[in-house]
Amino acid sequence: MYPLAEGEQLLWSGRPQRYVRRYADYHNYVGVAVGFGTIVATGIVGIVMFDVDPVTFSLWPSFFVLAIALIAEQNRQRRVLFGVLTYLVTDRRIVFVADRPGGIEFRWVWLPDLATPRVRDHGDGTGTVGFGAPVRVRLRAQKFQARSLLTTMVPELVAIEDPEHVAELIARNAPRTPAAG
Predict the structure, then answer these.
(1) CA distance 57 to 81
(2) What SS3 class is residue 103?
């Protein structure tokens, strides 16, 4: 299960201890609700002031329900991913391993490609080690894509025990890591 390269040393391994909700889990719901509210207001104004046929607006609730269902499915897939995810921190990279019934999937990020690790404490003995991904990476991770969530997730170690120690391991080894290529 451990896809270590020759000479690579495993420094730490762990799993998410719980599912952590984040702003990104909810902002799509808010956007859809605001959009739907705007459409309803436009429809009411159109019906009342311009005598538009109400049947014109009859399918709009279906689009709203479809958008909410797509967002809910994306969040469900993220929750399932955290149930099968294992993190490996080596002296060269961070490896994300998703051990699913259909097979094992590996993704990794080279340590030099990451920004300085930042720890966010959850107050229950766990924390998240993040790397301050650029906005474009975070937005790309939120798109509905037909690929695995593992390929689009922002590199972060979510809800792990002893996050300060893991962040220190990453920070200490990142400058010594040879250039990936």
Answers:
(1) 38
(2) strand
The helix/strand/coil state of 62 is helix
Token pair in block for residue 180: 């990936």
Query: 92 near 158, Cβ under 8 Å?
Result: no
Total-model pTM: 0.74
Spatial contact of 20 and 156, defined as CB atoms under 8 Å apart: no
> CA 101, CA 104: separation in Å to the nearest integer?
8
Q: Is 82 helix (H, G, I), strand (E, B) or coil?
A: helix
CA 31 from chain center: how many Å?
18
Query: N- to C-terminal Cα distance for the chain?
Result: 23
**pLDDT tens digits, the chain, 181 residues: what are they?**
457 888 899 999 999 999 888 776 788 899 899 999 999 999 999 999 998 888 888 888 888 999 999 999 988 988 999 999 999 999 999 999 999 888 998 888 888 888 889 999 999 999 999 987 655 555 555 554 445 656 556 788 999 999 999 999 999 998 865 555 4
CA distance 177 to 97: 21
